[in-house]
Amino acid sequence: MTVASLARKSLLPALKSRFVHSYGSTLLRRSTIRLYSKAVPLTAETYSDKVKRDERYKKLDNADIEKFKAILQDENSLLQDAGDLEFFNEDWMRKYRGQSKLVLKPKTTEQVSEIIKYCNEQKLAVVPQGGNTGLVGGSIPVFDEIILSLASMNKIRSFDPVSGNLKCDAGVILENADNFLAEKGYIFPLDLGAKGSCHVGGVVATNAGGLRLLRYGSLHGSVLGLEAVLPDGTIYNSMHSLRKDNTGYDLKQLFIGSEGTIGIITGVSILCPARPQVFNVAFLAVNSFEAVQKVFVGARKELSEILSAFEFMDGNSQALAERHLGTDHPIESGKYPFYILIETSGSSKEHDDEKLETFLGNAMEEGLVEDGIIAQDETQLKNLWAWREQVPEASTIGGGVYKYDVSLPLKDLYGLVEAVNEKLDAQGLRDPEDESKPVVDAIGYGHLGDGNLHLNVAVREYSKVVENALEPFVYEWISSKKGSISAEHGLGFQKKNYIGYSKNDTEVAMIKQIKQHYDPNGILNPYKYV
Amino acid sequence: MTVASLARKSLLPALKSRFVHSYGSTLLRRSTIRLYSKAVPLTAETYSDKVKRDERYKKLDNADIEKFKAILQDENSLLQDAGDLEFFNEDWMRKYRGQSKLVLKPKTTEQVSEIIKYCNEQKLAVVPQGGNTGLVGGSIPVFDEIILSLASMNKIRSFDPVSGNLKCDAGVILENADNFLAEKGYIFPLDLGAKGSCHVGGVVATNAGGLRLLRYGSLHGSVLGLEAVLPDGTIYNSMHSLRKDNTGYDLKQLFIGSEGTIGIITGVSILCPARPQVFNVAFLAVNSFEAVQKVFVGARKELSEILSAFEFMDGNSQALAERHLGTDHPIESGKYPFYILIETSGSSKEHDDEKLETFLGNAMEEGLVEDGIIAQDETQLKNLWAWREQVPEASTIGGGVYKYDVSLPLKDLYGLVEAVNEKLDAQGLRDPEDESKPVVDAIGYGHLGDGNLHLNVAVREYSKVVENALEPFVYEWISSKKGSISAEHGLGFQKKNYIGYSKNDTEVAMIKQIKQHYDPNGILNPYKYV
Predict the structure, then answer these.
(1) I need a labelling partner for B466 at 20 to 30 A (CA). Which of A86, B27, B255, B344 fits?
(2) Counting Cβ atoms within 10 Å, is residue B62 exposed (0-12), middle (13-18) or buried (19+)?
(3) Considering just the CA atoms, what is the radius of gyration of chain B in Å?
């Protein structure tokens, strides 16, 4: 009897007594990453062949500074010191670096309005910035754009415990919003790895998807209202709190996912669901991507209304996570090509346990699942989630990472990772151990339940050779399967020139018309999006 | 011991054996209504003080007819006979009547495009029409606009059984789409009383909410892609099938709820959830609106993930339904001021039954519920739903109905119905029995779980006296509570001038800009919306 089949037979009874390694809070912050990285090259230099400073934008002068000081009325709301600017000029992945000389941190919507009105009149380009956790260079200036940070607008405005409607400033950190809601018995309808840094406004501006979209749907359904400052300084106050309101075009939808190109979101009104009373997490090992898909189809049918996350990770991603976390993997019976994390949440522990155990028992009986573990308490649950949530950071282990966040039909989802590794191998670029090769590994993981794959190419350095091997190859592959080149990360700077792989000419033209309609001077987040 | 408390004590054991009256299919179609109604007055005459024909629109001539014949290449796709036109010129409520001389029924998106391109060039006004089940006069011409019916575009285009993605023509009848999905184990994420007549495209164009929004969310979340013909004839092909796609502004959102004013929806791509394996329906009687709210808060917490509908009806609405259906009410122990219909749906009959019975047991124990019944089979379930779904038709029993579909904070929801009845009584306009009074009754019912009230004023005739008593009183009352004057029915002709009660000047101006942007000649659905 092999280890695998033994594990399969013994899983269910064994689950109850197994120990999940406890290593405390493993959510590293960007400061940890910085220690072992080199200086980030300037975006303007790295991409000098692709982008030039647009001379229609005015260069910042002293009169502008004085104007902003008069608007903000607080020395601390205006940063000009090189050291202070560094954080705001660099992205989380250390791939993009801008040259802004000024960060403005307004405290009110009116201040944002006055700033933007002035910038529009003066043709000063502006980059709105939330928690700066984006993955496509969208929140980083390319040249000398002024950075408008929402970090000082961080108040909860109101909460209605009957409807679950939360209204807050754009700069509230997602985790703070969720902690606030937890006390009231509610949950933010979105969760993602960067929750400790990202802003609610940024999440909406980028239409983030995250870990629980499968259960609570997209922000296009849950955002009830927005407040935004338009490029001419107009305050668009649409902070409604109604679940249904069919009076006119639903214009707030345009700002969800607009990446700060047609307005700066300053306030968010969102419908929050009641917090489930019981969570379960199972972590499974399977032998093929076909098995991953079969487990998913079964889970959606049998776990149905309690299924709240279905994440998959390939074996290579878990190998990186193991090196990164420095502890043994929770599945001890061997290495497997694929792992699955299933989360259920509901209102009855007894019912949920029964559904999950019946489902897993059947999946093992059918030979789909090789080994697995169910978290027995809150700590174990968090630790199992860490093996999924730590993958993005683990993939920077070599020093950098090329990230592709794509939607694909389920059957084609993992084919992209295989195709990329074949291509890298054919060019002799990849080796997990050999430090002389530029690429550590190409790994795949993501929100399988949403058809959303994260392809991360972990590299030892950013290089044109690797970039040329990856692009446009990756985009062409996705386009051939009618997928999306950006499922949830957005376009930003990285994908500005690639929208044509996911949208047709009519769609692109209509998108450009909307940008022109709202921002004829192009002052908001230039050189990006479309 | 009173009847009520006896009922409370005996409800749960009694539920199992009680018989729900079976009266077969009670879903009357509009043909039934027509028999007892007088001729519908022309909208142009009824509202001659408010609207005049816009002379910039060309009047139809023979050359136009010949052009349309050439495009459609089928005599049956073009209706000019007065008898044939009647259905298309009148609305379901028999409140609005247009004077169109031409109905076009294209069979392909290309035909729609050619027709609209020509109309735009010639300045011929067009009203797009789906199943003509709208409630605000949105699908009916006001003057001589050409009617473009989507009824002949009624094909399912594709279905993906792994993702649940349905793609279909706009003219597919909702019930047909749902029946098709049922065979595949899926469900359309929206249900409403008019499902036997309304079109999928019309549902999207009006952002219909319906009976299960509580569970499956709004169409802004579930529609994955659209195909629409713009006012200049451009085909906007955005029939994507991806759950996540962050490449550019989500322009399809503008068309959801645009009521045919900026484009004609010709195709819909929608994400359909797996069909629940078990449905339960409970029908409860309670003594106050406060109790209705308490039962709701409890249901959302205890039934949580299996709660799929929470509908309320006042006693007056059930009295009309009883007269309309001609059978005894399912709650036999007496008349109550409020009734609740709760639907649960899930994957385990045993678990769902247990949750529902525990919840109802607690609610009775607390004295919130006076009497109730749980459907024991599919027929009983449908019959209980009929007491809710028949209310709209029952409210036309006097000959006509003024319908207000509003969103309000939960605590204020029923206050509007009380305020309206007080006003009607103060003016001596209302009497359920006295045929000389213009108003039968003002009744309230709706989707409590969505904060959505339907206020129906059942009248014996449409009259200016009643209309003046109701408007703008109703809109002012809603505005004072920060509600919406149209939760799900839209603006159409009825509410064109009232958007200011729900949206501020900036919002209205931005909405008008979008209309101007896409339809500078104003050929699509004129005299309506904004």
Answers:
(1) B27
(2) exposed
(3) 23
Tokens of A402: 């090329």
* pLDDT more than 70, % of chain A: 93
Q: What is the pLDDT of residues A135-170, one digit of tens each?
A: 999 999 999 999 999 999 999 999 998 889 999 999
Give CA separation, A300 vs A341, A344, B21, B186, in Å: 14, 11, 36, 11
Test the B interface: residue of A203, A243, A261 with most B CBs within 10 Å = A243
- The pLDDT tens digits of the residues spanning A71-117 come to 999 999 999 999 999 999 999 888 899 999 999 999 999 999 999 99
Rounded to the nearest 10 degrees, the angle between the axes of helix B349-365 and helix B3-15 is 170
Average pLDDT of chain A, as a whole number: 91
- B212 pLDDT band, cuts 50/70/90, is confident
Are A99 and A143 within 8 A, CB to CB?
A: yes
Query: B23 pLDDT band (50/70/90 cuts)?
Result: very low
Task: Give the Å distances, CA to CA, from B22 to B329, B384, B399, B461.
Answer: 11, 10, 27, 33
Inspect the interface and report whether the beta carbons of B234 and A506 lie closer than 8 Å: yes
What span, in angstroms and rounded, lies between the C-alpha atoms of A146 and A74?
Answer: 17
Helix (H) or strand (E) holding B513: helix B505-518
- Mean pLDDT throughout B220-241? 97
Q: Does A269 touch chain B (CB under 8 A)?
A: no
ipTM of the complex: 0.91
Whether pLDDT at B259 is above 80: yes
Q: Is B511 on the interface with A (CB under 8 A)?
A: yes
Give the tens place of pLDDT for each residue, A392-434. 999 998 989 999 999 999 899 999 999 999 999 999 999 999 9
Residues A405, A498: contact at Cβ < 8 Å? Answer: no
* Region label for A134, one of left (φ > 0), alpha (ψ between -120 and 50) or beta (otherwise): beta
Amino acid letter at B375? A
Give whole-number Cα distances, B321 to B212, B387, B402, B420, in Å: 22, 7, 17, 20
What does DSSP assign to residue A482? Answer: T
Secondary structure of B323-367 in HEC code, one letter for each residue:
HHHCCCCCCCCCCCCEEEEEEEEECCHHHHHHHHHHHHHHHHHCC
Highest mean pLDDT among B33-37, B91-95, B449-453: B449-453
- Contact (CB<8Å) A304/B346: yes
- Residues facing residue A371 across a β-bridge: A285
Domains of chain B: 3-27+279-305+322-380 (3.30.70.2190), 32-149 (3.30.43.10), 156-271 (3.30.465.10), 395-489 (3.30.70.2740)
Residues 204-243 of A with CB under 8 A from B: 206-207, 209, 213, 217-218, 220-222, 234-238, 240-243
